[in-house]
Design goal:
147 residues, alpha/beta, Zincin-like, three-stranded mixed beta sheet, 4 helices, 6 strands, 42% helix
Length: 147
């Protein structure tokens, strides 16, 4: 942690330099909730960077297009796909192993074609990720936390 006496009220900044996290904050104006907010914002930004690229990659590979991607902290799900083609990802998913994030992208993109979890839906997921069953089992150990 680094003190930054010029930082505004409620503004803490979290960064990562490939070896350690650095939290900058004003010690006179800081509350624990601001630090949590900085951590959430850090994960939201990293999710936007990584999940959008990954989803674009898989959408192109699968020959699909979506409307938009949004991010939020969800209590009980990693993602969803609306009938309008909007994909929502729980930004906490950026903490998952890469194969789990790929599974999540393929899963939600598959809902653009099949808006259910039918056998044909799972065949589409399997076509793109043959080992999806193993990854799906692995995902169970990383259940989202309640906000």
């Amino acid at each position: 942690m680094e003190e930054d006496k010029a930082a505004a009220v409620g503004k803490a900044y979290l960064s990562f330099d490939n070896t350690e996290f650095i939290l900058k904050y004003n010690p006179f104006l800081m509350k624990e909730e601001y630090m949590r907010k900085a951590l959430d914002e850090f994960y939201r930004e990293k999710a936007k960077e990584h999940l959008v690229k990954l989803t674009e990659y898989w959408a192109e590979k699968m020959g699909l297009s979506y409307n938009k991607i949004t991010f939020k902290k969800a209590a009980k799900r990693w993602g969803s796909c609306s009938s309008k083609g909007n994909i929502m990802f729980n930004y906490e998913a950026v903490k998952l192993p890469v194969e789990c994030v790929e599974y999540l992208a393929v899963h939600e993109l598959s809902h653009l074609i099949h808006h259910n979890h039918s056998k044909i839906f799972w065949k589409l997921v399997e076509k793109n990720l043959p080992d999806y069953k193993d990854i799906k089992k692995k995902m169970r150990q990383y259940l989202p936390e309640s906000p």
